[in-house]
Amino acid sequence: MGFVMKVKLTETLRDGTLMNYYENSGIAGYQFDVRLAYYRGHYLSVIDQLKVEVDHQEVEDQDIRFCINGKEFAVWELREAFYEFWSIKDAAVIKVCKDGGLTSGEHNVKLTLMFRCPYLPLPGAEYGYTPVDSCDEKVMTLVEHTR
């Protein structure tokens, strides 16, 4: 097994943020806030892996949107987002496209968020950088808000 750094300075999955979101008067999916569990911010292009699993069902990449600084990114767009900075002070929003969203109540949410630290090369690796584990898993409660 290789070297992976884990610096858990805050909870990645933010309690109280799981909710359905609406588009065109209907529930288009659900969303939740995430924080970078690291001591400094990073550009989105360093994100190597972003996966979401809810109630033990993996969400397809094409249904995930990473939202920050008023912009939405598909998972495949993150590697090219070298211009977009994620500050440690800011929560990002993960949106999942799913008609009807989630039911009210408790849901097991698992986030896989791995990024590379561009200023920490791996010892002995010509092009490798230290991977950082910002993953989290917890039971989150969705409370349906009336519109």
Q: Give the strand content.
A: over 45%
Major sheet summary line: 5 strands, antiparallel
Mean pLDDT: 88
N-to-C series of helices and strands:
EEEEEEEEEEEE
Distance between the termini: 49 Å
Estimated radius of gyration: 16 Å
**Protein structure class:** mainly beta
Side-by-side strand order of the widest sheet: 1-2-9-6-7
Assign an overall shape: elongated
Helix percent band: under 10%
- Count helical runs: 0
| Regions with little confidence, pLDDT below 50 for 5+ residues | none
The count of β-strands is 12
Describe this structure in words.
- The protein has strands at 19-23, 26-34, 42-43, 47-54, 57-58, 64-68, 71-74, 85-86, 92-97, 105-121, 129-133, 136-142.
- The protein is mainly β.
- The chain starts with 18 loop residues before the first strand and ends in a 5-residue tail after the last strand.
Features:
147 residues, mainly beta, 5-stranded antiparallel β-sheet, 12 strands, 0% helix
Layout of helices and strands:
Elements: E1 19-23, E2 26-34, E3 42-43, E4 47-54, E5 57-58, E6 64-68, E7 71-74, E8 85-86, E9 92-97, E10 105-121, E11 129-133, E12 136-142
Antiparallel strand pairs: 1-2, 2-9, 3-8, 4-5, 4-10, 6-7, 6-9, 10-11, 10-12
